[in-house]
Amino acid sequence: MDRREFVGKSAVLGTTFWLLWNVPRPNTLRAAAGSTEPLVLSEEEWRTVEAITARIIPTDHDPGAVEANCVNFIDKALAHEDADLLPTYREGLPAMNRLAVERFGAAFAELEPDRQDQVLVAMESGQVSGWSPASVTSDEFFETVRSHTFIGFLADPKYGGNRDFAGWKVVGYPGPRHDLGGYTPAQMIGEERITAIWGAEV
């Protein structure tokens, strides 16, 4: 499976993605325009969330979540329209770090990628022994971060993620064309090339 297929298939997993994707985010947009500094995540939380996103959409020959600055989108969303999910992060991040320390002797962000993956796989299964708090299960926390990561990777860069159109370049989306009258029929069926918003032809 190539990166485009991976992102496309992964983005549709679970209901959380669709619920979060369809939330209007005018306040997130304004916050992202104003600053790339953390609004609600602490420095440690920012670093940990970024490490999680780096394993959900890793960097290879294509940019991943780190290059797309997905953590910035997550921070701005949690500060505004997704504020009701901030407790999920505040409770889930320490629980995940406890799991990482218990299994491998270090906080999640300090682990090697293969060990980070093992922690995330265990969380995704929902069968983590001793996970606490009870208010959010490990799989609920994982799905929330995964959904936020994919939205940050694919949403318009004005919302704080998808930096330098990283996500759109990966999936081959050239950007909105409403201001240019839309795409021609030949472009829609692939007979003519489209000049993407970042200047390259796709």
Walk me through the structure.
Helix 6 packs across helix 7 (113-125), helix 6 (86-104) packs across helix 8 (138-154) and helix 7 (113-125) crosses helix 8. 53% of the residues lie in helices and 0% in strands. The chain has 202 residues and is an all-alpha fold. The chain has ten helices and no strands. It has helices at residues 3-11, 15-21, 26-34, 43-56, 70-79, 86-104, 113-125, 138-154, 166-171, 185-188. It folds into two domains: 3-171, no CATH class; 176-202, no CATH class. The model has no long low-confidence stretch (mean pLDDT 89). The chain is globular.
Give the gist of this structure.
The chain has about 200 residues and is mainly alpha-helical.
Helix content: 40-55%
Mean pLDDT: 89
What spatial form do the alpha-carbon principal axes imply? globular
Low-confidence stretches: none
Portion in strands: under 5%
**Main pleated-sheet profile:** none
Measured distance between first and last alpha carbons: 20 Å
Q: Rg to the nearest angstrom?
A: 18 Å
* Total of helices: 10
Helix/strand/pairing category: mainly alpha
How many separate domains? Answer: 2
How many E strands?
0
**Helix-strand sequence:** HHHHHHHHHH
Write the layout of secondary structure elements.
Layout: H1 3-11, H2 15-21, H3 26-34, H4 43-56, H5 70-79, H6 86-104, H7 113-125, H8 138-154, H9 166-171, H10 185-188
